User: What shape does this take?
Amino acid sequence: MPAQSQAVLTPHALYISGQLPALPSGELPSGSMSYKTSLCIANLKAILAAAGSDISRVVKTTVFLTDMKNFAEVNGEYEKHFGVNGAPKPARSCVAVHQLPKGVEVEIECVALPGGGGAGHSKEEIERRVAG
Assistant: This one.
């Protein structure tokens, strides 16, 4: 049993735990920081969709990096997904940390407004869809 929820949905916000650059199988592939960032964002998008929201409704992100030298590459990929198609850019923090779980180099968490991508779902439904 994980020590945290993948997401917590309240009437006013959807809080999504930090997402690692993992494939749906759980594998942590090697590759560029752009690729790893895209995997983090793909995982956020999957949870947003499971909760009935979408990336255009993200209002805050926090990006964790183990080395700030990767900021430009991470930022380049990030900008392809957030604040596009007329959506506002979310507020963002980027924090350098000593290390991240499973030895990854990037992790991204977010807060989004509920709705916008379909009907909202219960905590159990979100966890079932994310695990599924």
The chain has a mean pLDDT of 90. The longest strand covers residues 58-65.
